Structure formats: structure tokens, C-alpha cells
């Protein structure tokens, strides 16, 4: 058994200057105002601010970003409810964790919900160890991965990719980075929001302000 920490890994290079220039090129088609484009990107930022203020978010659908995460089954069960977005997920139906390529062990995500110095954390550790023991016992009896997967708890670590356009990412953040989302989901969505906000002008300003307000309470 191995306890791992959550990770966020950008797959798409996040170049804010490139992104706003692409969005400007697309959006100015609506107004036939390509003659107003400036090389320094200031015209793009002004236009995106106008689009955001007017609620014309459809223009933000013209750029997509792919992110890879290490979290757990509980997190990806919540996140894969979002559409339109695309997902590629480590499949417990095909991955046999009793094999050498997985180190003959199951990885579990360190639970952000449970204090590590608590008695409940020790109970959690014991439960994960038993789950792994039963998994390995069934595997030694010849059980197939799709049968073994029935033993895996929601704390089981999993790697997954999310591809979404900027408008959908904003929607995901509004539901998963702030509010009453699972702690393990916020654990990866809040730093993703912080990363996007730091790299991409304007687009994520509103939801980032919500995050700041929530943290200040």
C-alpha cells in the first residue's frame, strides 16, 4: 500500500498572451473590427473585458486546455459530470494493481478531509490496508481486473485528464473550486483556478474573486 499526494499537471502549455490573441481574432469576427488589433495585446485584453462584462462568454469556448491530475476515484466521479468536456481516466477495470508494473500495490490518496494525527486517520489507514489485502487475495485466486475493481474504495488514487474550453473551465471552477464541493475536489480545482488566473488575463477574474471572498470568511 502506498499513500500519495494530489498533483496538478498542465498538458497544454498555458501561454496567456497567445490565448488572448486567439480569442481576440475570433471575437472580432463578430464585429468586423480586426483593424483595431494591436501587437502588444492591449486591444485583446480590453475586448475580453468587454466580453466578460457583457456576458458574451461564447467567445471563450474557442480555446481549450488539457490538465492531468492525480487525485482519487471520488474526485473524478464528481468532475466527470461536467459537459462539454473530455476525459481520459486510469481504468480500474483494466489496470491490475497486483502486477509488477504497479509495484504490486494499490495507491491511495492522502485524505485532505481527515487530520493525519487523528484516530480516524488510523482507522482509514487500516481500512485501506484491508482493501488492498482482499484485492491481492482475489487476484491470487485468478480474479480479473473488472472483478477486482469492485473492492476499490473511493480513496483509491487515480490519474485522469480533463480537456475543456475556457468557458467550461470557468463553469467547473464556479461549482468545484468554490462553494460546497468535496474537499478532495477543491484540493485540485483551487490551485488549477489560481494557475489559470495567473496566466490568462480577464477570463477567470470573476470566479477568482469568489475564491478570494470565500477564503476571507
Along the chain, the helix and strand elements come as EEHHEHEEHHEHHH
Residues in helices, as a percent range: 40-55%
Question: Which stretches are low in confidence, meaning pLDDT under 50 for 5 or more residues running?
Answer: none
Query: Can you count the beta strands?
Result: 6
How many H/I helical runs? Answer: 8
As a percent range, the share of strand residues is 5-15%
Shape: elongated
Amino-to-carboxy terminus distance? 38 Å
Cα-atom Rg, whole angstroms? 21 Å
Q: What's the assembly state of these chains?
A: single chain
Instruction: State mean pLDDT (0 to 100 scale).
Output: 96
Q: Main beta sheet, described?
A: 4 strands, antiparallel
> How is the largest sheet built, in terms of strand order?
2-3-6-4
Structural class: alpha+beta
Could you explain the architecture of this structure?
This protein has helices spanning 16-31, 42-54, 73-79, 119-140, 145-148, 166-176, 183-199, 205-216; strands spanning 2-4, 7-10, 64-72, 86-89, 107-109, 157-165. It is built from eight helices and six strands. It is of the alpha+beta class. 47% of the residues lie in helices and 15% in strands. The protein has a four-stranded antiparallel β-sheet with strand order 2-3-6-4. Strands 1-5 form a two-stranded parallel ribbon. α1 (16-31) packs across α2, α6 packs across α7 (183-199) and α7 crosses α8. The two termini are 38 Å apart.
Question: Would you summarize the structure shown here?
Answer:
The chain is an alpha+beta fold. Helices cover 47% and strands 15% of the residues. The longest helix has 22 residues, at 119-140.
